[in-house]
């Protein structure tokens, strides 16, 4: 793992610009992966922030739908709530309504986490799906072309919540995580070593309520038990943040192009 982490942040005006920047980045990574390897494997997060980006990708009046190499794309999830796929809290349901129902992806290109199953079983099945999809051997981990992350006000990402057991899981690819602080619920999540093994990782974060945690996580002292997003340290040594101005308010000012860089040492 790289000793130094270069955090490149790109600040855009507002939620609408954030969604457009995310749609552009999803599309660029997919185009590049397909050009280089003939396919693109992307893991997406849930929550509310990515929904507008998914809607833009699906919108035929926008440039991205025609550019995206849908026939060579495979979608995976970073995490899922342990609820049925038609439940209001389901990340899959949000993605189906915003994106999957409107784009030409075949069922075999969509790899859903089975939130309706008993958590440990769902985690084990998804791990097995990853091993098959990526044809993994031994201790190999999957290398997604892109992992898109969000961040909660408590500094969690994926379903890696502060002071939960999943933070210590480094052997498995996927784990179930009991999250007392969120409806005493269960989640399924990729483990942080899997996320860090991706070719590229970007956080998509918007809103004034994220300004404080953004500053603490990316510019403050290391305390990953309290701020699990600090566990994200891509093996290539570069992490990208896509932020709106409200979420970036407490970071050092960007250059004229809205770009800034932070460096962290191990
Ligand atoms: C989830 C997500 C989670 C999300 C953050 C931020 O299942 O909720 O994967 O990690 O990215 O909670 O969510 P918002 O984008 O709604 O702020």
What does the model show?
- The protein is α/β, with parallel strands linked by helices and 266 residues long.
- It has a single domain, classed as Rossmann fold (3-Layer(aba) Sandwich), CATH 3.40.50.1360.
- It has helices at 15-37, 49-58, 63-67, 91-98, 119-133, 192-196, 211-219; strands spanning 4-12, 40-44, 73-77, 79-81, 110-111, 146-149, 174-179, 185-190, 201-205, 238-244, 259-265.
- It is globular, with a radius of gyration of 17 Å.
- The model has no long low-confidence stretch (mean pLDDT 97).
- 6-phosphogluconic acid binds at residues 45-49, 78-79, 91, 150-152, 157-159.
From the spread of the alpha carbons, the general shape counts as: globular
Share in helix: 25-40%
Number of helices: 7
Sheet-strand content, in percent, reads: 15-25%
Work out the number of β strands: 11
Q: How many structural domains in the coordinates?
A: 1
Mean pLDDT: 97
CATH architecture: 3-Layer(aba) Sandwich
Regions with little confidence, pLDDT below 50 for 5+ residues = none
Q: Would you tell me the structural class of the helices and strands?
A: alpha/beta
C-alpha termini separation: 9 Å
The string of secondary-structure elements, in order, is: EHEHHEEHEHEEEHEHEE
- Write down the CATH topology: Rossmann fold
CATH top level is: Alpha Beta
Task: Provide the spatial order of strands within the biggest beta sheet.
Answer: 5-3-2-6-9-10-1-11
What small molecules accompany the polymer chains?
6-phosphogluconic acid
Using only CA atoms, what is the Rg?
17 Å
